[in-house]
Amino acid sequence: MTNAVTAIPAAASTEAEAHFARRLSMETDCADVQAAIAEGDPGFVLLDVRGPNAFARGHVPGALNLPHREMEAARMAEWPEGTLFVVYCAGPHCNGADRAALRLARLGRPVKIMIGGVTGWLDEGFTLEPGR
Predict the structure, then answer these.
(1) Hey, how many other C-beta atoms are within 10 angstroms of the C-beta on 108?
(2) Which tens digits make up the pLDDT trace of 79-120?
(3) What is the pTM of this model?
(4) What is the DSSP secondary structure assignment for residue 125, as one 8-state letter?
(5) Contact yes or no for 114/88 (Cβ under 8 A)
(6) For residue 18, how far is the Cα from the chain centroid?
(7) Distance of alpha carbon 17 from alpha carbon 112, whole angstroms
(8) Which of 28, 44, 66, 92 could staple 84 via S-S, CB 3.0–4.6 A?
(9) SS (H, E, C) 11-80
(10) φ/ψ bin of 27: left (φ > 0), alpha (ψ from -120 to 50), beta (otherwise)
């Protein structure tokens, strides 16, 4: 029987492997970010790319506020080349993290998006830290 799920065959395993590995090279999730932060030295810089008012209302613990429009070569030179940045915004309804990731990639910086953003963080049961 054919339905909306089975009407299009699944990709070959090798294609699926390449696709999902590529996605994971560009994305991470809230639970993995939280676990890495809890270990102490996560190996990345977490950037909240929302505006300062949203950041002040609450952000992921340990995140720095750097709106995507402020990501320029001179500003990013504060971190060594090769530093991995993980960016997030408000949530799935916001494209700020995509804009930030694009800017960082254009500056030659390694970057991943924390999918779900603040919405995903709260959905996982994690708490936000008030602004600094």
Answers:
(1) 10
(2) 999 999 999 999 999 999 999 999 999 999 999 999 999 999
(3) 0.92
(4) T
(5) yes
(6) 20
(7) 19
(8) 44
(9) CCHHHHHHHHHHHHHHEEEHHHHHHHHHCCCCCCEEEECCCHHHHHHCECCCCEECCHHHCCHHHHCCCC
(10) beta
